[in-house]
Amino acid sequence: MTQITVASGRALTGACTVPGDKSISHRAVMFGSIAEGDTVIHNFLDGGDCRSTIAVMRGLGVSIDVIAPTELVVHGRGVEGLQEPADVLDCGNSGTTIRLLTGLLVGQQFPTFLNGTAQIRRRPMGRIVRPLRGMGADILGRQNGEYAPIGIRPARLRGLEYTLPVASAQVKSALLLAGLYAHGLTVVIEPGPARDHTERMLAAMGAPISVYGNKISSERPQTPLRSLDITVPGDLSSAAFLLVAGAITPGSRLTLQGVGVNPTRIGIVEALLEMGAAIRFENPREEGGEPVADLVVETSALRGATFGGQQIVTMIDELPILAVAATQAAGRTVVRDAHELRVKETDRIASTVGELRKLGARIEPTADGFIIEGPTPLTGAPVESQGDHRLAMAMTVAGLVARGQTVVYGAEVTGDSFPGFEVTLQALGADLSVAA
Ligand code: S3P
After folding, report:
1. Nearest to 155 by CA among 171, 133, 136, 172
2. Which of 35, 178, 186, 352 has the greatest CB tally within 10 Å of its CB?
3. Which domain covers residue 163, as residue numbers?
């Protein structure tokens, strides 16, 4: 078990990059596997979750060369080229892996079994399983398919028009992938702007994907999917920890280079700007079909604000770190319409409230979010990651402004999405040490 010890009092300055985007890294490996030819991936996220995707795709017969930890070549086998695995496919701790894979595998000619850690077996699968069954998929799972382990038998799929009950990129992506193996058109109607990396990448590969407003469709490709040369942008969800660290730590100025700023992901930047954060976008550009920019942040006088509705889906993974920012903002911050936080790696309403209170934060849980009063001087204390990477990093950033020492136990999970998180903060000047 790893622990991070962090103290306040030092400014953060300098420039850095953040590791490649997790969502895009998963998709590059999965979609590259069903393209024809070699997909070359630069700046791949060498984190625990994406390694699970590599292992699973290898289990399906795909040859993947790891040239360097962040440089991969995926030898695509074509849409019909995956092979029956010899074992259960272990999705580790990765919700994106198990959910997208289920969509990809229901239309194969062979059976598969998917499983993962105890944490994965607690996360809802019914939201994927029910609409896939509506397409004719033959899926077995614990509690009638509500939870993994999942078993899949070959089935003849038909297209479906489906309105997502909650905006979820994982559900949308699973259905669009199944649609590549179905007879007829699959149409997904989304209630809010969930991240659109699947649509962008599959379209760039030449797959028959169409987007009309909030309706996205897929169908069986008539021609092979083209392999791509993909440079994965820096992960805005990882950059968010540094944006908040820079905004709340006195005397700071940080430049985060090459961060993905896809409009379906930038809710956290918009929220911090609304709270008065000094954040600028510099050098806007496009890499591999995704918008990218350098982000500059300086210490800012934050004020509370209210967030809800459609903005929530564009910053769902950033709400724990937004809560940390809110403890330092003048006035009340309200987050609502975020029920989905209850079914992430942890119940992120309960876990964020529980851990931040240990530092003296004034934060109340609600059914669908939290209410925070600030600014509150935080006091260092021992806290737990609860096995949740984003909670571990949020608590470390809180420790940067808490008087005395904060110790984050179970901090090895930061590597699930942000390998090098601790070293990056140290290089920017943080008073931080790591012990195994
Ligand atoms: C992801 C979608 C989101 C997000 C997760 C990654 C993806 O989950 O929270 O970290 O890569 O598609 P939901 O689809 O469950 O909202």
Report:
1. 136
2. 352
3. 22-231
